[in-house]
Amino acid sequence: MAQACLDTALGIDLGTTSVKVSLVDLHSRNVLYVTSRATAARVVGVEDPPKADEQDVRKIIGTVAACLVSLRELWIANSISHKIRRIGVTGQMHGVVLWKAGLRIDDFLSPSDSESDNASASSSGGVGVSHLFTWQDGRCSTEFLASLPPPDSHLKLSTGHGCATLFWLQRHRPEVLREFDCAGTVMDLFVTLLCDLNSPVMSVQNAASWGYFSCTKGSWNIDILAEAGFPTQLLPAVKTPGTVAGKTKETKCFGGVLPEGLAVGVGLGDLPCNMIPILESSDCGALSISTSAQVVTTTPPSFTPPPSDPTSPVEYFPYFGGTYLAVAAALTGGNVLAWLVETIQRWLQSTGLGVSAEKDKLFERLIELGLQCRDTSLEISPILGGERHQPDRRGTAANICHDNVSLGSVFRATCRGVARNLSEMASPDTMREKGVVRMVGCGSALLRNAVLKEEVEAAFEGLSFVYSDRGDASIGAALAELD
Would you say 279 and 468 are in contact if contact means Cβ atoms under 8 Å apart? Predict the structure, then answer.
């Protein structure tokens, strides 16, 4: 008896350190498979300019191919037939990659492309494509950003944003720009290759993340940019999230997973896609703690974002259906807990007494000790590197006494400081004023830490909490194609 074939949507997330793909049932919306692989794409040896951060795009797309082949092996092993109907693509926002029109994805992954060495710092990725200048790129100093014209946008311009990086290249490396005639995020490049498009298209979500895009007008700041000498010919056409960018062309490099003629959505931002599986209704908010941390809510369709305010901890990013995500984004999250564990390791090693502890085991033990110190009076504000709206703020410790400096107490107080910092940026009263009654906790640093869960719930007292591991951009990208 012939087995029924499941209709599915495929989500692809081109992340900062890994590629993840998900397969979602078109009708039940159940997640069938998820697979991921590290890209190892960071280009080493980039020392000029300082704080540059570039990635080898060939390695990113090669990792997509490996993930799709792995996905096919998974469903063959489970003896289940799948028919992919739509493809959603998401990934790291803000960054920019340049390329020559006419590239094909099979050419991109051909063996002859291996001549470009990942240790090269030339900003050329070979095959008619530049390196990806990522969102973490720090080449645009405060002084450089101050020299740029103010954008007509409700979002702040920062280093790592696509237009800021292109301005820097125009002034310092104009020969790089002369090599190419297309630009976009890495998602836009992938969609262009997948659909064999003549020119790239970009979603409003990614355009806003580049800077110099007015969400209220729905257009680039062409006049402002042109007057400043910006290469406006590189700006992609912009489309609404959820729009079909094109259809797949025949390709041999994905192991037969992607036949010709599949509809591919315009590339989406990873933050909005992360929220799709989490924010199921308007009375729901998200609190995510991974390396960094965010408190996220949606806005009503009639909402117009206020002008940019550098002192505000909240920014508004385009979501879906004309709405925005209100995001209080903290630089202080799981990174400070990781720092604490690593610091304790260094202290133990510095004694020279042969004392050591594996990082994961030490972290687990700190959680156990923290659960025993619920009433600690120690106060720690673990703002080690400031916040975007308070860049000069630094951490403090207070109310230290003889009986509150145990490891469990220090760990508990640090978790409390992380949670309280978030509640100061987006207070529970503000959440309730927005109609939020339920918070969904997500993110790896929160889900694995019972102490941090307790402190988050205390900091946002009065709001009910549930926890979810569905905050996944690849799943969100697939779900975006179902609506």
Answer: no
The pTM of the full predicted model, rounded to 2 decimals, is 0.85
Residue 234 burial class via C-beta count within 10 angstroms: exposed 0-12, middle 13-18, buried 19 and up: buried
CA 437, CA 428: separation in Å to the nearest integer?
Answer: 9
* Averaged pLDDT in 10-residue chunks for the chain of 483 residues: 71 93 91 90 78 92 90 74 88 95 78 43 69 92 94 93 97 93 97 94 97 95 97 96 91 73 94 91 92 91 88 92 92 92 93 86 96 96 88 92 94 97 95 93 94 98 92 92 82
The candidate with the shortest Cα–Cα distance to 179, out of 217, 128, 223, is: 128
Query: How many angstroms separate the CA atoms of 365 and 368, rounded?
Result: 5
Nearest CA to 396 among 375, 411, 417? Answer: 417
Q: Is 467 exposed, middle or buried (0-12, 13-18, 19+ CB in 10 A)?
A: middle
- R_g of the chain computed on alpha carbons: 23
Residues in CB range of 374: below 8 A, 6 or more apart: 412, 454
H-type alpha helices, 351-443: 359-370, 407-425, 428-433
Residue 73 makes CB contacts below 8 A (sequence gap 6+) with none
CA-to-CA separations, 102 to 166, 195, 196, in angstroms, rounded = 21, 11, 8
Q: Are 70 and 62 in contact (CB under 8 A)?
A: no
Distance CA(425)–CA(294), nearest Å, equals 9
Q: Which residue in this structure is represented by tokens 């992380």?
A: 418
Beta bridge partners of 42: 55
Tell me how many degrees the CA angle 422-324-93 measures, rounded to the nearest 5. 80
